[in-house]
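Ticket #4471: structure output looks truncated?

Reporter: J.K.
Steps to reproduce: submitted the chain below (93 residues) through the standard prediction queue, then opened the result file.
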Amino acid sequence: MNKNTTTPTLATEEPPYNPDDLDAVEGFWEGARIEHQGKVIGVSRRIKDCESAKVQVTLTLSLRVVDFFKNTGKDWQSQMDQALIEYIETHHA
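Returned output as attached by the reporter:
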């Protein structure tokens, strides 16, 4: 099986890897292509190996915080991320 493609499996078939072995699971899915209507829209990657990887989340912040960072310019979300990284390094190093 090409590791860049997947095929559905029946419940009675053995998985192509041990689902209890996280390295085997990550190895199987690493580099998998994500397709929608025949068009590649992404490629799987190991987030834990990519220090700059970001994850989209939804969170509730005070209007004061959002306004402060939005007023810093176009890259305000990255600036907020950097401020949080600095907080972690200062308080939990």
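Triage note (M.O.): checked the attachment and the full token line is present. The two ends are 44 Å apart (CA to CA).
Status: closed, working as intended.
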